[in-house]
Amino acid sequence: MSDNQLFFLVFIAPWMTALVAGGLVAQAFAIRAELARLRSVRVVARREGER
Length: 51
Description:
The protein has one helix and no strands. The chain is an all-alpha fold and about 50 residues long. The chain is rod-shaped and about 75 Å long. The chain starts with a helix and ends with a helix.
């Protein structure tokens, strides 16, 4: 293994992995928040229709 490959594995790969994992976690939270918001909007709309 060359020095460049070693450098990549030790320094760059962990950062890329952390960035990708962080992005996926952020996406999951955003989707959950959006679903909760949509659910509350639907409930409000249903209550308006019952009047």
